[in-house]
Amino acid sequence: MFTVYGLAGRVVSGDIEQLARSDAVQSLARVRAATAVGRGAEVAGAALERVQAGGPTPFGGLPAGIRQALAQYEEPPSREQPLSQVRAVMSSPAFCLPLQMSIDDAWQALQQRGLSQAPVLGADGRPVGLLLRGELLPPSLMGSADLPNPWHWQHLLTETVQEHMLSPVPCASPQTSLRQLARLLLELHLPGLPVLDEAGAVQGFVSRSDLLKALVHEPPLDLWG
């Protein structure tokens, strides 16, 4: 189950198919498409296919992280219950930004915590958007005559979070399936989503990084259950 929140409050609730039919969600479609990770992914993919087919494990020459990940397929399966819901992988509590915070203060707060995004809360404490550090320097400014202009940066830093946040923003529930979450993140090109409790308060945040971290730990993720 997902819920979309914006400045006007709750916009729509439903499963991923219902969200796909919502104009509010479609407006979130990102211009930037996902990019390929290059030759390293091709090598790892070919190696994984050989491992799954019962062939020799070609660990030599691969980075340590890839070797470790591939080795998991040769180990006995875990007896622990696989992770299948957002509640098992989300980060909690979530760091949130107030709507009227300046971009300067928001940037500093995110940098100090090593975060690339954060939910934005309205005066009532409900989510109204999502601020992405990567969106503060849009591609349209790259190569622009305004880029080296100190006035541009001074003006940007004094603007508020509200002027640069992504809104409305889909929010997951703790019971949302990880498969549905992963699908929504890919389709909307989002790095993560706020997680709300039944009262609509932010309980946590789940990101792509949270999913990747869970993939290298036991118990395994259950994306297909």
Can you offer a commentary on this structure?
This is CBS domain-containing protein. Pfam families: CBS. Residues 90-147, 165-223 form the CBS domain. Keywords: CBS domain. The protein has helices spanning 16-20, 23-26, 39-52, 64-71, 103-113, 150-158, 178-188, 208-215, and strands at 2-6, 9-14, 97-98, 117-121, 127-132, 169-172, 192-196, 202-207. By secondary structure, it is of the alpha+beta class. A three-stranded antiparallel beta sheet has the order 2-1-6.
Count, helices: 8
The mean pLDDT is 74
What order do the SSEs take from the amino end to the carboxyl end, as H and E? EEHHHHEHEEHEHEEH
Regarding quaternary structure, what we see is single chain
Which properties best describe this structure?
225 residues; CBS_dom; alpha+beta; globular; three-stranded mixed beta sheet; 31% helix; Diverse_CBS-Domain; three-stranded antiparallel beta sheet
